[in-house]
């Protein structure tokens, strides 16, 4: 399993009139955490794209347990629990400043050859970064 944690502070523009985080902003929070997890293992999202691989999201599931609020610092734990194939699954848990789990989510992305527009298996060069986690 690969696991990383990313923190962010809720900005005013991300909230609704009640100062709750607007639900649509969670997708962005998850994307930021996902990119940081890849950086954590040594690979940048930019490098993946430069090498001709796109990672479109095919599934997005989220459960809102409690709201997040303006100016609150959130901790997003993101993990990859299984070896990628043609898909890669990211699981997330978001915690508030009181260390309460407020959100649980998952995203499924697939590997797409950007030139051929065809779904492919996770490239070997990406698996090199993950081999210590999935021997």
Task: Describe the structure using short key phrases.
elongated, 36% strand, five-stranded antiparallel beta sheet, hydrolase, alpha+beta, EC 3.1.2.-, 135 residues, 4-hydroxybenzoyl-CoA_TE, YbgC/YbaW, 3 helices, HotDog_dom_sf, Thiol Ester Dehydrase, Chain A
Please give the radius of gyration in angstroms.
Answer: 16 Å
Q: For the residues shown, what is the average pLDDT?
A: 97
Largest sheet geometry: 5 strands, antiparallel
Number of domains: 1
Shape: elongated
- Proportion of β residues? 35-45%
Count of discrete alpha- or pi-helical segments spanning 4 or more residues: 3
CATH topology: Thiol Ester Dehydrase, Chain A
Helix residue percentage: 10-25%
The CATH architecture is: Roll
Q: Would you identify the regions where 5 or more consecutive residues have pLDDT less than 50?
A: none
- Strand element count: 8
Question: How do the SSEs run, as a string of H and E?
Answer: EHHEEEEEEEH
Describe the strand arrangement of the main beta sheet, using strand numbers.
Answer: 1-4-5-6-3
Alpha-carbon distance between the two ends: 10 Å
Structural class: alpha+beta
Q: What is the CATH homologous superfamily assignment?
A: Hotdog Thioesterase
Q: What is the CATH C level class, in words?
A: Alpha Beta
């Amino acid at each position: 399993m690969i696991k990383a944690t990313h923190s962010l502070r809720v900005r005013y523009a991300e909230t609704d009139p009640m100062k709750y985080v607007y639900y649509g902003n969670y997708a962005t929070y998850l994307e930021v955490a996902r990119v940081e997890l890849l950086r954590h293992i040594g690979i940048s999202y930019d490098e993946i794209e430069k090498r001709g691989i796109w990672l479109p999201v095919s599934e997005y599931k989220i459960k809102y347990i409690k709201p997040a609020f303006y100016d609150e610092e959130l901790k997003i734990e993101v993990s990859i629990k299984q070896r990628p194939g043609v898909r890669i699954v990211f699981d997330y848990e978001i915690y508030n400043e009181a260390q309460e789990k407020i959100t649980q989510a998952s995203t499924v992305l697939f590997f797409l050859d950007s030139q051929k527009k065809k779904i492919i298996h996770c490239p070997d060069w990406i698996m090199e970064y993950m081999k210590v986690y999935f021997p």
